[in-house]
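Per reviewer request, we include the raw input and output of the structure prediction for the construct analysed in the revised manuscript.
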Amino acid sequence: MWKLPQAKGDNMQEIEQVAAALEKHEAICAERWKTVFNNLQTMEKGAEKRFNGIDEQTSKIETIILSSAGFLIVTLAGIVGTMLSMH
């Protein structure tokens, strides 16, 4: 992968050691990035399920709130109507 320059003696050995260390480092980093991307994909799938569940829960809560508000309005209207008819 790395093109090594022409060198003599100890310099060539040092260059080869650095090149080997870099190749090892690149291989390790590549594996780490694969793991990170796989984990991100898993997290995105989990988030999608959670957000879909939130939509369902929100619609249930909306139904309960609207039903309660309707009940209160009808009850209060009945009380006001009863009070007005007494006079």
